[in-house]
Design brief:
Length: 339
Amino acid sequence: MLLATSKTFTSPDFPLISGVTLPEVTLAYETWGELAPDGDNAILLCHGYTSNPHAGGDDGWCANLMGPGKPIDTDKYFVVCSNMLGSAYGSTGPATVNPETGELWGPDFPDFTPRDMVAAQERLIDDLGINQMAAVIGYSYGGHLTFTWGVTRPDRMRALVPMAGVMERKTTMADIDALRGRFEDCPGWNGGRYHGAEAESGVRDLMVTIRKETLTNYGIGKYQEDTQGTDEADAIIAHQAETWADQFDANCLIRLAQAGIGANVLPEAAAIKAPVLYLLCDTDKAVPVALGPEIEAVLKENGVDVRFRELVSPYGHAAPMLSSDLWEDDLRAFLEANA
């Protein structure tokens, strides 16, 4: 679904690495701040796996770090956050209509990769009149996209900030089969053609369950317990899960995960030209903090100017946002020095 705060950009004839050419590609996106006349003050934000382009304002996913006077200062930078290709918040993907058939793509959406996501984002930033970006900043899946930007388009940015992300995604087809298998147990899954019957099919209920699991695993449940108390936290998590389940799409959930199979930019690390600030949390269950020094070492061996920052927080994968106060000075200084 397209969020009320988002707008869209559409471009024709979009070739995918798989060899399929989409008749058109649409990206939903949001912006904050103003683009400088020379087009060089833009920051591209890349969101996480199941997130959306609403990063700013009072309720955006990056609101603790972005806004007037904040490290990602919208009085200084023109910030763009696009919904990634294949997602469910207004961008081309399984939940959108194939213009050649007039029907939803659903499970028939062609294979795509993170590199395709970056190529689609590049069309958007070109259309907006952005030249060299001040920075690309990404969280989780968006952290991988940040690294992908760095190796595939090294001259397009002056700084890179991957948060809670990896250079090599470890997703396997067995993971995808397991995820799809959960939905195949829904009585109305119908091979992924359940649209219009999400509630009756059992797909929505499973989406709620999966979202509760995700919020708990990411450390958001712990944060709600610490700030609201256990009973209130359960209600908040349930509400967030139900809201998300009404917005997201199960085919998108599966295909976004599948897009990560084989996604590895480590062998191309030497292509990165921009300085890197890399952030992982010590309690992250999704991306082990031990990867930080390993990736830092590989980047340094390949001549990349990189600094790894270990965030000590109880809030795991969500800590870059929920514990933003612990590293916002690092981010501010990094952007001031490089972006």
